[in-house]
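#structure-requests
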Amino acid sequence: MIAAVLEKKGYAVKILDLPALKLSKNSVSSFISVENPDLVGISAMTPNLTSAINLARQIKEVKPEVVIVLGGPHATLFPGETLQNVPEVDIVVQGEGEETIVELVKTFERGESVNPQILGIAYRKKKGIQINPKRPFISNIDYLPFPSFNLLPMNKYILHPPHGKRTPAIPIMTSRGCPYRCIYCSKSVFGRKYRANSPEYIVNEIEYLIEKFNAKEITFYDDVFTLDAKRIHKICDGLDAKGIDIPWTCETRVNLVTRELVERMKKSGCYLIAYGVESGNQTILNNLKKDIMIKQITQAFKMTHETGIQTVAYFMIGSPGETHETIKETIALAKKINPDFAQFSVSTPFPGTELFDIASKSGLVSKNWNDYVYAELRAIDFPAFETSDLTKEALQKWNITAYKSFYIRPQYILKRIKKIRSFDEMKLNIKGLLMFTELLRKKH
């Protein structure tokens, strides 16, 4: 999106996706030397902050005069700390960066220096660090261009289960902001105010992705995709009106679906919905301020399955108030609602969340930002914090126990085999099996 707004203004932009291209340190240095950029932008979440810092240092070694701008959730939360500890970063962008980056580039183009009038940035002055007022959220996100997928190595991206009915599958976000109050969620970049693209914008974007990049599947990564049911109906109507027949998946909450809605989504190509369940114990859900009931969870999964849509259930282990017994309840609920895929993660207190404040007060939270991962296998080995009842070792064991208990069931294995309908789906299931085999090799 940052590249897209710059391209729209006529600036020359390139994106270097290091993990996708599997580039070495020497390759990055060579890229900087050859391209000779005036400005380099890096986005970092908490888990990859160290990598972003090392990258900034590497770039400065090649071209000391280049302006390095760091954005993303972590820098948004800690602009002063970031600039103080990382001299290689020249400017921090807080919050949404589309309007800020254009204003910054225009400022440099005029030969001017950054100043207090540029909203949403932090930078160094002779007498310390200047943190400017925050920039208001973009109210009408329809005015933004489509993301510059043309700058990405689209043929390098591989899918992980459960997504991938057909490939290539392209992810898009059609809204920003979430009005809910879950204590584990940081809203530092997009905030709580819900802002959504219009159905017309979304249908046009999907049509563009099909024509330009041969998209065969769409993954909606909105936090609360079905918050506005009328909008979803209009998106489905728009896809049907244009004759767009493409499978798609989304993520939402169990309290934001109805049978009428999921049936309409199914008819228009939706084949999988991911729900945040988190726990099988109502007290834990209340502690997380999830604002859902166990009954709503069971109803949503029953209704979705009856409609013929596959499901993903996200669970968290180690939340405030968690005990060995409540974890057993979570595993039991997972088996009861029987999603097609289940993800079990150790609760992670990301900065900017109420959960982080709770964990910090206990003194049991990790000070190593590299520990703050939640959706990778290595997260099992490095829980970011522990509770008074559950040590890190216990959380590690329970996480693996949950996976084994859910997936090593004859009825589940048979269910997965029966649902294979294509070669792509077979490859996805084999990939999932390999990931699970890696999990089983762990020694806990």
